[in-house]
Design a protein that fits this description.
heterodimer; A: mainly beta; OB fold (Dihydrolipoamide Acetyltransferase, E2P); six-stranded mixed β-sheet; five-stranded mixed β-sheet; 3 helices; 11 strands; 42% strand; globular; disordered N terminus; B: alpha+beta; Four Helix Bundle (Hemerythrin (Met), subunit A); Helix Hairpins; 5 domains; 22 strands; flat
């Protein structure tokens, strides 16, 4: 594995020299692919509820919902990854994440699991430019599956590129 | 934050209050409408500031406050008649005091001007000595010298009685220092009634390792040779201590100890003990209730009528703002839940519904009441802002060389805290404007046949669900010719356009980049002022208007909602989405008649409105919403830039009070949207920023996202 990699995304320690400290990630599916976020960032997981769209927001901003009196924005991860808008089904869920200053939700197809990982299991995300690649921070090989770990700040970011879509 | 820093913070918060009190009482003295109470209040305010400053070792503040206090004492005691008081000096001292406080807060230093100090010293009658001839008390530098208590000077001994000896037992509650009790002040005051001998009982002070410095474990016994009656003594002590904490024992009377073992403990040396050395003693605390009851029973009857001001009066508490905000949020939730229930009730079978609806009506009334009450908790009188104004006027008088008489009215008008906070800046700006541009110099005023001193009137009143603040002056009024000329020279009015009407000309004062002052002063005149005021006021959902009469004066009227937390809204539907228009910006709503609409070359639509032309915009186009209906209704709104703007919507759902939820903190600022709210069905609706809508139509940024998304959802 690459020893040149010394720093990881926030909340995820990718430093291989500190491989001993296990972490937990929540994994979920979007378009058949598996993604993960650090369990510490997950506030709650809730079913889909209609969003109120926001005018002139980026394509992956679904709108805002009422989370027990608080207003939070919900983002479409599929759209953000450049895979088109998500169809909403019964199993669609919104993962409410702590984004630091505020909460935000991401719409995913289904939540899969909570897995224990060792930072030494992580591989750097391939540095290939592509739609949605900027939201990945690291990859995790778990059996046959590849789990892509997400950069939360990048998911919610609205770039001019998105605005022009 | 460590405990001391926290207490320090509280102290400075209190200082602000005291300074506010001082300001208003000084103003009363200046106006000649001061009552004895006002002078006492001013004295107490300064005294309390001094006390706390002593505790925090702010020597500069202590010194100045002490001097100031001495002057006020001279007034209070009648050594100087209120009518003869050098009010300018006092006002100035008040200003300097707040500067010294501010400097102390920031850890800086602000030496008071020597000239002022001299003047104050002269007023106080020479360098004031620490008052009271503390006989045997040697309380070092009294570190806890704070007492926002009423220190009423007892009336000169009533019907002359012969000198007699009386014993006073003072056994304060353990938390007495937290009430800013300072034993020295008690003794000083008693010393002024006669000769005293103080014995301090330190037997209950624990060893240093268990010592809690803020607990009082001391009790005192004072032998007083005085000609004052018991009633006078009781009144005196009552202003410092609760009834059960002291007791007067006449010679020869039965000597019931105030605290159980006070006699058992050998009275120790004269009180050379700092309050800080006092310590906790659980045993003493346990006995207190019993002793207190006993003391209460034997306490001498209090004087009624003009008795001393009680320290515990008023019945107010300090509450953390966060708590009130949380309460407010919860009430908001209840309002939402309640409207959810109301919506559910509509689908119930008629038979079941009746009782349910009845209960809902009560619930609705109760939540409304609850909401009003929570709002009332958050309400503050505008006095909080108004009391800063006299000082501002004095500063401006000095820097502008003008004289102005400030008249305040309606200071007790209450508005929500959110508004009070936002009120200060516009108000200060308006006042500056009146002082700088409105009022003429004394010379000019005399020439114009007016009194040399100008008058500025600032008033507040409730008008419906809004608060109206008026700032009027009797100055020269707005110079319309100059405004128009300036507007023309800057190209704001096309050269060939006719002169605007007087009202329009006056309103140019709100235009960015126009100011009529001939010289740019450091007060105003840079052309940033009234336009900023207007922008800020409108951002709050308020309006500002101006009326000017040349030569007679100018009046600004500021209308603001009473709160920013709830808003009266008109709910409309456009496509699949609902939006909220602030009711305050709506002029009217009507059915759209195609005969009234015309298309301009270029595709834009206008609407004829009783002879007026209003641009017609479609809300769904503005906000990029998937179209369903043909938008048969229009809402006519008044905006900052467009006097009448017609906005076509699909449906007008109804009018409702909505709880305003910030959108910026949960997402970001959205153009055209000022905030969000939660409707009765639990879904979020956006509150429109009406002033931004014309701008949206010009950029016409098409946003495919929303339509795609609603399709997806």
């Amino acid at each position: 594995m690459s020893l040149a990699m010394t720093s990881g995304p926030e909340g995820l320690d990718v430093d291989p020299t500190r491989a001993g400290k296990p972490q937990q990630i929540v994994t979920f599916k979007v378009e058949g692919r598996t993604f993960g976020v650090d369990v510490g960032a997950v506030r709650e997981i809730k079913g889909w509820q209609p969003t109120t769209p926001l005018p002139n927001a980026a394509a992956h901003v679904l709108g805002v919902i009422n989370l027990r009196g608080a207003i939070i924005a919900v983002y479409d991860l599929r759209q953000r990854l450049g895979l088109g808008p998500s169809p909403v089904s019964r199993s669609s869920v919104v993962i409410v994440l702590d984004l630091g200053e505020r909460y935000g939700g991401i719409l995913v197809d289904a939540v899969s699991d909570i897995v224990d990982i060792l930072p030494s299991d992580l591989r750097p995300a391939p540095d290939v430019a592509g739609d949605g690649d900027d939201v990945l921070t690291a990859l995790l090989v778990k059996g046959d599956d590849v789990v892509a770990l997400l950069d939360l700040a990048a998911i919610v970011r609205e770039t001019t590129h998105d605005m022009a879509a | 934050m460590d405990a001391l820093a926290e207490i320090r913070g509280i102290y400075f918060d209190e200082c602000d209050e005291f300074l506010g009190q001082l300001e208003s009482t000084l103003a009363a003295i200046a106006d000649g409408r001061a009552k004895t109470d006002d002078i006492h209040a001013a004295f107490r305010a300064v005294h309390s500031i001094k006390g706390g400053a002593g505790a925090f070792g702010l020597s500069q503040l202590v010194e100045f406050a002490h001097l100031f206090e001495a002057c006020l004492d001279a007034l209070r005691s009648g050594r100087i008649a209120v009518e003869d008081a050098p009010i300018d000096i006092l006002l100035q001292a008040g200003d300097i005091l707040s500067e010294v406080v501010a400097a102390a807060r920031d850890g800086g230093s602000r030496p008071p001007p020597p000239a002022l100090v001299e003047a104050l010293e002269a007023m106080a009658g020479g360098k004031p000595q620490p008052k009271g001839s503390a006989t045997e008390i040697d309380l070092l530098n009294d570190p806890v010298d704070e007492a926002p208590a009423a220190e009423e000077t007892p009336a000169p001994a009533a019907p002359v009685a012969a000198k007699h000896s009386v014993e006073l037992r003072i056994a304060p509650d353990r938390d007495v220092f937290r009430r800013a009790f300072n034993p020295r002040m008690v003794f000083d005051t008693l010393a002024s009634l006669g000769s005293i001998e103080v014995t301090c009982d330190t037997s209950k002070v624990p060893t240093i390792d268990t010592l809690e410095p803020f607990d009082c474990c001391l009790s005192w016994s004072v032998r007083l040779e005085t000609d004052a009656s018991d009633q006078v003594l009781a009144e005196t002590l009552d202003s410092f201590l609760a009834d059960h904490e002291f007791r007067i024992v006449r010679d020869g009377e039965d000597d019931v100890p105030v605290i159980g073992e006070i006699e058992a403990a050998a009275p120790e040396t004269a009180a050379a003990v700092q309050p800080d050395d006092a310590g906790a003693n659980p045993a003493a605390a346990a006995e207190k209730p019993v002793a207190a009851a006993a003391a209460q029973a034997t306490a001498p009857p209090l004087a009624n009528g003009s008795g001393p001001v009680r320290r515990h009066g008023g019945g107010t508490i300090r509450v953390d703002l966060d708590r009130i905000d949380r309460l407010m949020n919860l009430v908001g939730e209840i309002v939402i839940t309640q409207s959810m229930l109301t919506e559910r009730a509509n689908v119930l079978p008629k038979r079941d519904a009746a009782a349910f609806v009845d209960a809902l009506f009560s619930l609705a009334r109760q939540t409304r009441e609850l909401q009003d009450n929570v709002m009332a908790v958050r309400a503050q009188p505008v006095k909080v802002v108004f009391q800063r104004l006299p000082r501002l006027v004095r500063e401006l008088e000095r820097s502008l060389g003008k004289k102005a008489h400030l008249v305040l009215a309606g200071e007790d008008t209450e508005v929500d805290k959110t508004i009070v906070e936002e009120l200060a800046d516009p108000l200060i700006h308006m006042l500056r404007n009146s002082m700088d541009h409105g009022l003429e110099t004394p010379q000019e005023r005399l020439e114009a046949g007016k009194p040399a001193d100008g008058t500025i009137r600032v008033s507040a009143e409730h008008r419906g669900s809004r608060i109206l603040i008026c700032v009027s002056d009797d100055g020269r009024g707005i110079n319309r010719e100059r405004l128009i000329a300036k507007a023309r020279s800057r190209g704001l009015i096309p050269a060939d356009a006719p002169d605007p009407t007087p009202e329009e000309a006056d309103n140019l004062i709100f235009h960015p980049g126009l100011s009529t002052a001939q010289t740019v002063t450091d007060v105003s005149g840079r052309g940033v002022g009234m336009d900023v005021v207007r922008r800020n006021v409108e951002a709050l959902g308020g309006r500002i208007t101006v009326e000017s009469t040349p030569g007679k004066g100018c009046k600004f009227t500021l209308g603001l909602p009473l709160t920013l937390a709830v808003l009266d809204g008109m709910i409309v539907r456009a496509g699949t989405e609902r939006f909220v228009f602030p009711l305050s910006s709506i002029v009217e709503t009507m059915q759209l008649d195609s005969k009234m609409v015309e298309q301009l070359p270029g595709g834009r639509h206008i609407m004829q409105l009783r002879g007026e032309i209003a641009p017609l915009l479609k809300l769904r186009d503005l906000l990029g919403i998937r179209a369903i209906g043909n938008e048969p209704n229009v809402v006519i709104v008044e905006t900052e830039t467009v006097r009448r703007l017609a906005i076509a919507v699909d449906e007008i759902v109804g009018q409702q009070q909505v709880v305003v939820k910030n959108l910026e903190s949960s997402f970001r600022r959205v153009e055209g949207v000022s905030a969000a709210t939660i409707l009765g069905d639990g879904l979020v609706a956006l509150i429109l920023d009406v002033d931004a809508l014309p701008g949206l139509s010009q950029t016409q940024r098409r946003a495919p996202t929303t339509s795609e998304l609603t399709g997806a959802a």
